[in-house]
Amino acid sequence: DIEKVLGTDLKSPAADAQPDAPAAPGMLLSHYAPNARLLLNAQQAAPEDGLLSFGPSPLPGAQQARVEVNLSASGDLTEAAANLFQAMRNLDSSGADTIRVQFIPSYGLGEAINDRLRRAAAPRD
Fold this sequence. Notes:
The protein is of the alpha/beta class. It has one domain (34-121): Rossmann fold. It has helices at 2-6, 77-92, 109-121; strands spanning 37-42, 50-53, 67-70, 98-102. It has a four-stranded parallel β-sheet, with helices on one face. Helix 2 runs parallel beside helix 3 (109-121). It is elongated and about 60 Å long. The model has no long low-confidence stretch (mean pLDDT 87).
């Protein structure tokens, strides 16, 4: 259909492309990964770690974290999704070796947020 609209044939993927290569970087197990180690579903903050918060209830020890960024103080998943990548960049640039992530519900946009966070926390080769 696109070729009909354009009036030209579209090019096929390169013949020398690797057949096992993912179609897009977002399909890799480890993607969107900061330099800092990412720990998901943290129960408390730790001194000198970065803290990725969510919602109105801070984790115990949050005031001792090197830096804290709250994706959405009101617990809004749409706001959290919009803030995710900038928040991770800010935390990663803080110099923290570890970023602890507060629990984020896995419904609606929370599923996508948690998928990105799992990929960011995945072991890297």
